[in-house]
Every structure is written in C-alpha cells, then in structure tokens.
Amino acid sequence: MRSNILLYNIIKMNIMTIKYLISFLSIIFLILILSSCEHNSTGIENLPEMSFSKDVLPVFQTGCAISGCHDQNTAKGDRIYDSYQNIIRDVQAGNPDGSKAYKIMFDPFQPMPPKSVIPEPDRIKIRLWILQGAKDN
Fold first, then answer.
1. Are 88 and 79 in contact, with CB atoms under 8 Å apart?
2. Domain boundaries, the chain
3. What's the CA gap between 59 and 43, in Å, rounded?
C-alpha cells in the first residue's frame, strides 16, 4: 500500500514537472519567435520615391479627373483631382487610410471610378506616395 502511494506521488510530481517544463519551453519559444522578427512600421525606406508629376498625377488624371467625375467642369462633391493643390485637399500626408482621395478607391458601395477600378499597381503608387509624405515633386 505504501509503495502504491509513493509511486502515485512520484508520478504526480513528474506530471507537474512536465507541465511546468512545457509551459516554460512554450514561453521561451514565443520569446524566440517574437524577437527574431524585425518589425518595420512601413517598410518603405528601400522603395523608390514616388514622383507626384510622373507617378501619381497621371493616375488621377486618367482615372479621376475625367468628364462626369472629378474634372474641372463636372466635379462631383467639389472634389477636383486635376492638380496637386486640388488633390492634396483630400490627402493626409503619411496616412493613406485617413486620406479621402485614397480610401474612396476601395469603397465597395461606390467604387471609384465607377466604370473601371483603378488598377492595383496604380493604387499602390498612390499609397506609397502618401506614405512618403505626399510631396509635390
């Protein structure tokens, strides 16, 4: 009887030891995984700088500042997207998700432009330009 109790206690201690060991190793593993990742908030440092005149304005001119949308003559909602001065009104430099001119391109209920969506490579250019400070260059 004593040997059974002794054996039970030994097994119980081993199980508790194994549980603590697994918990400890899980914490160590989690620390190693998290510390091995390099977190970069934007990751744009190594990307080429977007030029407003060469990369961004052509997208707005062909996709937004068109007749019936956001051109000088038929602008909807007082939003004219034909120049830096007009576009920057709806852009928060460094914050594409807070920029009306960028966010509207992804509106599922009112996609812009209505007839054909701006291609993803062009939307990426606009996003990158905004992240880089929405400069007039």
1. no
2. 1-39, 52-131
3. 23
Q: Residue 76 and residue 101: Cα distance in Å, rounded?
A: 13
Which two three-digit tokens encode residue 113? Answer: 């432009």
Report the C-alpha dihedral over residues 105, 111, 112, 115, rounded to 10 degrees.
Answer: 140
Eight-state DSSP code of residue 111 = -
pLDDT in tens, 13-25: 667 677 666 766 6
Closest by CA to 77, choosing from 108, 58, 104, is 104
- Two tokens at 1? 């009887």
Q: Letter for the amino acid at 130?
A: I
132's tokens: 């880089």
Please enumerate in sequence order all residues whose Cβ is within 8 A of that of 114, keeping only pairs 6 or more positions apart, or say none: 69
What Å distances lie between residue 89 and 32, 56, 82, 85, 117, CA to CA? 45, 15, 12, 7, 22
Give residue 94's Cα distance to chain centre: 12
Model pTM above 0.85: no
